[in-house]
Design brief:
Blueprint (H helix, E strand, L loop, with lengths): L1 H23 L4 H10 L2 H13 L9 H27 L2 H8 L1 H14 L5 H15 L7 H34 L7 H23 L3 H9 L1 H21 L5 H8 L1 H14 L4 H25 L6
Helix pairs in contact: 1-11, 1-12, 1-13, 2-4, 2-9, 2-11, 3-9, 4-8, 4-9, 5-8, 5-13, 6-7, 6-8, 6-12, 7-14, 9-11, 12-14, 13-14
Length: 302
């Protein structure tokens, strides 16, 4: 179940990035970042209500859990903000390519923060995923390199913060009280983190009339992205109940392959064949992670 959740998270992540790139042409980066959190909250509330009525929801409120939610929200705010601004300046496939550094950074941040040791197999797998992303894919055309430099730098910053918030995701889920299905804790953790992030950004957005008008004008697209955000976060947090942070992050790099195809189809981005060639190493890396997790926990999630 953890592996399936991680794969679903990759699909939802890619779909969310495609929608974010589309909105990047119409919305300021800060407005788009705030909306990614705020427009997810109605769907979280609906799901929380349903799970509570079914008796599958718990509401962990320990100081440790709340502290992790705060740390995760801060890092996610910076990560999403940098990513949204990166979409304005760079191609979708290039931005998600640089974001794929996050699993590599997790090999450093995860043992330091979560105290969960990383196996040699996971290190090899993550290097395959990241290597396939960088070595085989990134070779921008000369005329595009200057324009995308800012987007690449912003994406690098986002990758660092995403590695940190993946660690806090893992710890927050582990600190939560697991329900019978495991889903309740993941939903509440995702809702808590999203709500705090939206509160952080609200003073920078809601005080401006033009920002409020932009949110209203693009309400339908933002709601669709909000639904994808909820699906992505719940799948990711649920996967973290069964797998460690570097493994989940590595499997989620499957979203890069989907984003490269989407970038070509919807935005006519260049260097398609070279970027698509990275999919081979990515699939090998993901398969290695999946095998390793299954060999350790063959009945996880049953």
């Amino acid at each position: 179940m953890g592996l399936l959740a991680a794969l679903l998270s990759a699909v939802f992540s890619s779909s969310k990035d495609l929608m974010s790139k589309r909105l990047a042409f119409r919305l300021d980066g800060t407005v788009s970042t705030f909306a990614s959190f705020a427009f997810a909250l109605p769907f979280y509330l609906l799901l929380l209500t349903l799970l509570t009525l079914l008796g599958h929801e718990t509401f962990p409120c320990s100081l440790a859990f709340l502290g992790l939610v705060l740390l995760r929200s801060l890092t996610d705010t910076f990560a999403e903000g940098m990513k949204m601004h990166a979409f304005v300046h760079g191609d979708l496939s290039v931005v998600v390519l640089v974001l794929s550094l996050s699993p590599l950074l997790l090999l450093i941040t995860s043992p330091l923060i979560t105290r969960v040791p990383v196996s040699f197999t996971e290190i090899v797998a993550v290097f395959l995923v990241v290597g396939g992303s960088i070595v085989m894919v990134y070779r921008p055309s000369t005329e595009n390199s200057a324009r995308q430099k800012k987007g690449i730098l912003l994406a690098l910053g986002a990758a660092l913060f995403f590695s940190l918030n993946s660690c806090f995701d893992y710890l927050a889920v582990q600190k939560g009280v697991r329900t019978i299905s495991g889903l309740g804790t993941a939903v509440f953790a995702g809702f808590s983190m999203t709500m705090v992030s939206a509160v952080f950004l609200s003073p920078f957005v809601l005080v401006h009339a033009d920002h409020r008008k932009a949110l209203g004008s693009h309400r339908s697209g933002l709601l669709v992205r909000g639904l994808l955000e909820v699906a992505f976060m719940v799948s990711k947090l649920y996967a973290l109940e069964f797998m460690d942070a570097p493994a989940v992050a590595g499997i989620m790099r499957m979203s890069l392959l989907l984003s490269i195809i989407g970038g070509r189809v919807f935005f006519n981005e260049k260097d398609f064949k070279r970027r698509l060639a990275a999919g081979g190493l990515i699939v090998i890396g993901v398969s290695l992670i999946a095998w390793w997790q299954w060999s350790r926990h063959p009945y996880a999630g049953e």
